[in-house]
Amino acid sequence: MASTPNSWSKTLKTLHWMIAFFILFAWASVELHEQYAKEDPMRGWWMVVHFSLGFLVLFLGLFRLYYRATHGRPNLYGGSFQKPVSLLTQSLMYILIIGMPLTGLLMRQFAGRDTKLFWLFDLPSFFEKNIDVAKQFAFLHKELLWNALLVLLVLHIGGALWHHLYNKDNTLRQMLPFGKVK
């Protein structure tokens, strides 16, 4: 089902909220991982959760990008300043949703580590071990992209609330799974 001028498609709404929750859970899994000593098996367990959720975010982000390109989007609300900021924020969020898992995976690849996914299989390292390159990807993943994602999330959520509370338009309602567009 395609998006209409007044509402996102159910598929895009579902993907939006799944990606949001998986990002939240991926962050929580890293925080929980830090609570355990290096020798504790739970530390590794939480990292498998993190890698698996990151893989899901990457897969769903790519699928959402494809689906959005082929099924359209609703009309944008807001003034001449708000529309380009909204489009820029959304575009950058797509880049980060795809870039975060990719840089995390490349960080592990260049560190010479396999990546266990869903406790089902190990994704082997395809690159020659290079700790300097791994550190560069670690910086991108943990510092640059993560902090950029946090800033964009604040803009995204703040913009949705601004539209809902101040402009009183349908921007937020059209993305809520239970929202009724006026």
| Biggest sheet overview | 2 strands, antiparallel
Between the first and last Cα atoms, what is the distance in angstroms? 20 Å
Give the integer mean of the pLDDT values: 94
SS element count, helices: 4
Compressed to H and E, one letter per element, the order equals HHHEEH
Fraction of residues in helices? 55-70%
Approximately what portion of the residues adopt beta-strand conformation? under 5%
DSSP E strands, number? 2
Cα Rg? 18 Å
Low-confidence stretches: none
Task: Describe the fold and architecture.
The protein has four helices and two strands. It has 182 residues and is mainly alpha-helical. Strands 1-2 form a two-stranded antiparallel sheet. A hairpin with a 3-residue loop joins β1 (115-117) and β2 (121-123).
